[in-house]
Amino acid sequence: MKSAVILFPGINRENDAIAALEQATGTKPTVVWHGETELPNVDIIMVPGGFSYGDYLRCGAMAAKSPIMRAVADRAKAGVTILGVCNGFQILTEAGLLPGALMRNASLKFICKNTHLKIENTTSRFTNQYGKGDVVDYPVAHHDGNYFADEDTLNRLEGEGRVVLRYCDANGNVDPATNLNGSQRNIAGIINEQGNVLGMMPHPENAIDPLHGGIDGRGLFKSMVEAVS
Amino acid sequence: MKARVHVTLKNGVLDPQGKAVHHALQGLGFDGVNDVRQGKFIELEIDGTDAAKAKAEVTEMCEKLLANTVIEDYTIELA
């Protein structure tokens, strides 16, 4: 199974993405530089986290317009599995591959800690290894993770089962008190209409080794591998 | 020709930075401020003298990059 990690200037989580994909697929992913115009033939594409272009203008705005993103958009249309984490989520929304936008955290603070997440959809190609209502523990590290979309878009996302992850507490309670960053409806991760593109703020790639303090993130990578096998 | 672009959050989109600034202004004793919205100002130096053409081009720039129309509005001023 082949995978690729897209690398933009200012990205700093690519090695974590590479490690997680290698662990799950058994093969080291290809790293593709943002200035490239073509992608190798791969089953999984990951857009990692970091601070592409120094977060200038808006987080992910410049990266979304870089040459390689046209190829990523083509693959998205073709149904290839694409995971965007943190800055990767911001880039995918800015590129129009996912609806909504990520705004400054409501607290205005950079949030770096572990958080609980409720798996809301257990049939997606990113979460098929989890059970209904499972609560997982992933780290977050972001300043702009406050998910915003208009009411119609939010209702459509909910109606179509496209809200995949929500911020919650250890018992799975989703309410304003467990809303980490002010996201509408506690949304932490969504998929596109076709179901092949997931954007999420938390970092599953940083929860794949006991040394990370937990391995809850492995399920997400295993889900992708199962889905494309 | 100069184009001046203002990008602001849409009405109805919560602006936590504007709120923080508002709060700080109140702390300084400026009680007459009812609301603060924070935005961006972008100044472009562009070729040509055809205002209509420039406006169309800058509008396209706003739609494609300078603003995120999911959450932001923009206004363009030519000078």
Automatic annotation (TrEMBL), chain A:
- Annotated function: Part of the phosphoribosylformylglycinamidine synthase complex involved in the purines biosynthetic pathway. Catalyzes the ATP-dependent conversion of formylglycinamide ribonucleotide (FGAR) and glutamine to yield formylglycinamidine ribonucleotide (FGAM) and glutamate. The FGAM synthase complex is composed of three subunits. PurQ produces an ammonia molecule by converting glutamine to glutamate. PurL transfers the ammonia molecule to FGAR to form FGAM in an ATP-dependent manner.
The subunit structure is: Part of the FGAM synthase complex composed of 1 PurL, 1 PurQ and 2 PurS subunits.
Its BP terms in the Gene Ontology are: 'de novo' IMP biosynthetic process
* Positions of the catalytic residues: C86, H203, E205
Alphabetical list of PANTHER family matching this protein: PHOSPHORIBOSYLFORMYLGLYCINAMIDINE SYNTHASE SUBUNIT PURQ
GO (cellular component) term, any one: cytoplasm
Which pathway does it take part in?
Answer: Purine metabolism; IMP biosynthesis via de novo pathway; 5-amino-1-(5-phospho-D-ribosyl)imidazole from N(2)-formyl-N(1)-(5-phospho-D-ribosyl)glycinamide: step 1/2
Where is this chain primarily localised? cytoplasm
**EC id:** 6.3.5.3, 3.5.1.2
Asked if the keyword Cell inner membrane belongs to this entry, the reply reads no
**Transmembrane stretches, start-end:** none
Which organism is this protein's natural source? Thalassospira alkalitolerans
Q: What is this protein called?
A: Phosphoribosylformylglycinamidine synthase subunit PurQ
TrEMBL record, chain B:
**What would be one Gene Ontology cellular-component term for the protein?**
cytoplasm
What does the record give as EC number? 6.3.5.3
The record's subcellular locations are: Cytoplasm
GO MF term set = ATP binding; phosphoribosylformylglycinamidine synthase activity
Q: Identify one Pfam family in the record.
A: PurS
Look up the signal peptide feature and give its range: none
Q: In which pathway does it act?
A: Purine metabolism; IMP biosynthesis via de novo pathway; 5-amino-1-(5-phospho-D-ribosyl)imidazole from N(2)-formyl-N(1)-(5-phospho-D-ribosyl)glycinamide: step 1/2
Q: Major place of localization?
A: cytoplasm
**What Gene Ontology terms for biological process does this UniProt record contain?**
'de novo' IMP biosynthetic process
Q: Which domain of life is it from?
A: Bacteria
What InterPro entries does this protein's entry cite?
Answer: PurS, PurS-like_sf
Q: Which UniProt keywords apply?
A: ATP-binding, Cytoplasm, Ligase, Nucleotide-binding, Purine biosynthesis
Recorded catalytic reaction(s): these are: N(2)-formyl-N(1)-(5-phospho-beta-D-ribosyl)glycinamide + L-glutamine + ATP + H2O = 2-formamido-N(1)-(5-O-phospho-beta-D-ribosyl)acetamidine + L-glutamate + ADP + phosphate + H(+)
Which HAMAP family does this one have? Answer: PurS
| PANTHER family (alphabetical) | PHOSPHORIBOSYLFORMYLGLYCINAMIDINE SYNTHASE SUBUNIT PURS
Similarity comment = Belongs to the PurS family.
This molecule's function is given as:
Part of the phosphoribosylformylglycinamidine synthase complex involved in the purines biosynthetic pathway. Catalyzes the ATP-dependent conversion of formylglycinamide ribonucleotide (FGAR) and glutamine to yield formylglycinamidine ribonucleotide (FGAM) and glutamate. The FGAM synthase complex is composed of three subunits. PurQ produces an ammonia molecule by converting glutamine to glutamate. PurL transfers the ammonia molecule to FGAR to form FGAM in an ATP-dependent manner.
Record's subunit section: Part of the FGAM synthase complex composed of 1 PurL, 1 PurQ and 2 PurS subunits.
Protein name (record): Phosphoribosylformylglycinamidine synthase subunit PurS
- Output the lineage of the source organism: Bacteria, Pseudomonadati, Pseudomonadota, Alphaproteobacteria, Rhodospirillales
Encoding gene, per UniProt annotation: purS
